[in-house]
Amino acid sequence: MDIKGTYDVEHMSLKSGMEHESWPLDEIDPKKAKFPCCLVWTPFPVVSWLAPFMGHVGICREDGAILDFSGSNFVSVDNFAYGAAARYLQLDRDQCCFPRNRAGHTCRHGFMHTEHGTAITWDDALRASMSTYETKTYNIFTCNCLSFVANCLNRACYAGSMDWNMLRVAALILFKGHWIDWKSVVRSFLPFVLVLFLGVLLVGWPFLLGLLSFFLLLIGWYVICTYCVKNVLEC
């Protein structure tokens, strides 16, 4: 075994990672669907008509290509499922922990981070999570696009946290995300407004009570399973 050769390869890899991490990002370009180091969100067909806060989420590489867990054993690359992005939120790579060795953690979760899996660059974290999710079965309630993004953020220990989950990812993009343009706002909310209007017109106020119950059940499911029965949402 060529020990020196192995060392040289590892040394070059680490050096390359250090250089790559410092590369400036290109500008966000919605027309070309390029969102460097961003989270992106788009409404679901039918589901978002009833619950406009529900949607499909992806995470983007440094070159702006969107990665999204959109089906069993499949992570799409640069082909965002369910249409163009409506919201985006650019994340700061400097808030990630990319240790070069066991002693190189900048986060407070050294051992836990190592056990979960670390990365040396942003793209490396996404590649590792992508490989993991290409062996998983998709389920909208337990193993979905949000859990994929949460796995990426945990692997990067983004914002010094290893507690990223579906709820936290959803809240991050929904409350801090930026709309692409006014057309994205219309595309996201117009179907819900139409369903709401027709529901009240045809059914009356009981429709609103039913819709509110649906909201509470949906949110309650994720809250209870995330914070009370955590193993349910493990995938």
UniProtKB/TrEMBL annotation:
GO terms for cellular component: endoplasmic reticulum; Golgi apparatus. InterPro entries: TMEM222/RTE1 (IPR008496). The chain crosses the membrane at residues 185-205, 211-229. GO terms for biological process: regulation of ethylene-activated signaling pathway; response to ethylene. Pfam families: RTE1. Keywords: Membrane, Transmembrane, Transmembrane helix. This is Uncharacterized protein.
